[in-house]
Write a structure and sequence with these properties.
7 helices; globular; alpha+beta
């Protein structure tokens, strides 16, 4: 006596359309949520960046920022420039580890923290020392790489300290150029009690110095060293260009690297004062 196999249920066209509609609605909801988060992160990033940078006789500054190409990779890069009570000016550029709204918010904390500390500590190394301890006290899971500079227009001294960040690149009108080989320290927010060394350069003559984040110079198949060399080549060929033109052109280096991260560039052009070579490889 044979057993009859139970009839299998085949979904009707209406069932398939209903399921397709449910999946489509879910996908649209997720896409809309992600787009909202992307737009929020980008708006937060742009609102936290300065609308203008300080300019001095003999020292002009310009900066550019480009969001990441892939949505939620946005959120961590910044640049800043501001005047200090003693008449000097300070500049910073950096990159927060991580992405999305959390990284953008942490970036704002780092930037504001650096500004607050800089009003009480003129030495860039001390600024990073104190900012590092401040960030650790906040208990965040994130950390940041950073370069911090202070320029004294009276002495034409440019003091520089960096925390885990890629070195600045410079070029002078007399043909000299290079990567700053200043000794740096670890990223901010990692190890308490760190001390960050400072290098001093006297600006004399005409030249440019550029700070970039790794989104500019590093890509999936493009090493940082090659990116820094490309930045140096741009500076050498356009050493007399206006700083805003240079910043825009340097940001295009990111297109060559195929970057997926956001990217920031800060350019300082000095006409009063080539870097005298102290702290540089000539």
């Amino acid at each position: 006596m044979s057993r009859r196999r139970p009839a299998s249920h085949h979904p009707s066209a209406d069932d398939l359309l209903t399921e397709l509609g449910r999946l489509t609605a879910k996908a649209l909801e997720q896409a809309e949520l992600q787009q909202v988060r992307v737009e929020l992160a980008e708006a937060l990033q742009r609102e936290l960046l300065p609308s203008a940078l300080p300019q001095l006789p003999g020292l002009r500054a310009a900066a550019c920022y480009a969001p990441a190409r892939h949505g939620l990779s946005i959120g961590g890069d910044w640049y800043d420039g501001f005047r200090l009570p003693d008449g000097s000016v300070a500049f910073s550029l950096g990159d927060v580890q991580g992405h999305d709204v959390e990284a953008a918010a942490f970036m704002g904390q780092v930037r504001v923290g650096l500004r607050a500390v800089a009003t009480m500590a003129a030495d860039p190394g001390e600024v990073l020392d104190r900012a590092n301890d401040l960030l650790i006290s906040l208990g965040s899971r994130l950390f940041a790489t950073c370069s911090f500079l202070r320029y004294d227009p009276g002495s034409r001294d440019l003091a520089h300290a960096r925390a885990g960040h890629v070195p600045p690149v410079w070029a002078n009108a007399d043909g000299r150029w290079g990567h700053c080989t200043d000794e740096g320290g670890p990223p901010l927010g990692v190890l308490p009690g760190e001390k960050y060394p400072v290098t001093h350069h006297r600006l004399a003559g005409s030249g440019v110095l550029a700070l970039v984040t790794d989104g500019v110079i590093e890509g999936p198949a493009f090493p940082i060293e090659a990116g820094l060399d490309r930045v140096a080549a741009v500076l050498r060929s356009r050493v007399t260009a206006e700083p805003d033109e240079l910043a825009t052109e340097l940001l295009r280096v990111a297109d060559l690297t195929g970057h997926t991260d956001d990217a920031a560039v800060l350019v300082l052009r000095h006409d009063d004062g080539p870097l005298d070579g102290q702290g540089h490889d000539d």
